Amino acid sequence: MTIRLVLDCDPGTDDAFAIMLAALHPATELVAVSTVNGNVALHHTTENALRVLDHIGARVPVFAGADRPIARPDLPIARNVPNADNPKFQVAELALPPSRSAVQAIPAVRMLIDTFLDPANADVVLVAIGPLTNVALALEQEPRLAERISRLVLMGGAHVGGNVTATAEFNLWADPEAARAVFAAGLREIVVLPLDATHSAPLTLADCDSFAALGTPAGDAAAMFLRHRITHDQTPDSLKSEPSAPVHDPLCVAYLIRPDLVTSAGAFPVTVETTGEHTLGELVVDTRPWSRDPVTATVAFTASVQVFREVLLEAFGHDLRTEKPLS
């Protein structure tokens, strides 16, 4: 059966991978894209989402969402501070032609509410690969969504370590109050792909060559984005067998297509720290067997890079310019 999904994102080169994967893979139908303040400001994330879809020729509506966190005027610290030692990694605008398509007039939160309240969308999966602001706002305005969203698959957090602080991953750190609210909302099923899983399946320069060899718009873009990520990745070379970099966000979409992508995982009580001086935004995964707290999410710890490659190549080999739509 076709996997129908809504993608909530903050592009971002790895978000671009996820958009292309969801729009092009034969097993998926990308119903809508919503954007949120995150990797870059909202007007850039929205423009970047439009650029990616226009580049691959996919007609998917894009809805602009929250331009700030739910309880804070902006990110916990200014966006440029965490990137001060690597400012070229997170570009404001993706290196693709300016968008031709227009953003939808309906706000993203309204789209999420309308989409998931519609009984015709009972099978639609919500994939959130940016800060969880839009999702939290939608659940706050319409609590019935907790029962209507069939599954939430998100990229965020880390069981061990972080990337924006010693303990926190960017998506959850950027709006920790929203993340905490989402985990506490009582959703039917939450699956978390944290840094532990994404770092276990890095892509390499050989993958750049494989994507470029496809000769498609998606393959060309993927090769370009991956080379950029590898060039600016700050993981010490001593920890790598060859030049590589994690591409976090598309793992969520790849998992929907190939659940065997995840090679180890567990179901646990999960929350997010919102007040700690050194732990703000930390994903707290309670792995104690004797914990009395209710299980709130399945957390992946490792992933198969081979399965990841296979799924990406299957999708990026499609060229919508030459493929005839089904009648």
Q: Helices, strands, pairings?
A:
Layout: E1 3-9, H1 13-24, E2 28-35, H2 42-56, E3 62-64, H3 108-117, E4 125-128, H4 133-141, H5 145-148, E5 152-155, H6 170-174, H7 176-183, E6 190-193, H8 195-199, E7 203-204, H9 205-213, H10 217-232, E8 244-245, H11 250-257, E9 262-268, E10 270-272, E11 283-285, E12 297-303, H12 305-316
Parallel strand pairs: 1-2, 1-4, 2-3, 4-5, 5-6, 6-12
Antiparallel strand pairs: 7-8, 9-12, 10-11
Helix pairs in contact: 1-2, 1-10, 1-11, 1-12, 3-4, 4-7, 9-10, 11-12
Task: Write a structural description.
This protein is of the alpha/beta class and 327 residues long. The chain has twelve helices and twelve strands. The protein has helices at residues 13-24, 42-56, 108-117, 133-141, 145-148, 170-174, 176-183, 195-199, 205-213, 217-232, 250-257, 305-316; strands at 3-9, 28-35, 62-64, 125-128, 152-155, 190-193, 203-204, 244-245, 262-268, 270-272, 283-285, 297-303. The strands form three sheets. Strands 3-2-1-4-5-6-12-9 form an eight-stranded mixed beta sheet. A two-stranded antiparallel ribbon has the order 7-8. Strands 10-11 form a two-stranded antiparallel ribbon. Strand 2, helix 2 (42-56) and strand 3 (62-64) form a beta-alpha-beta unit. Helix 1 (13-24) runs antiparallel to helix 10 and helix 1 (13-24) runs parallel beside helix 11. The longest helix has 16 residues, at 217-232. The two termini are 19 Å apart.
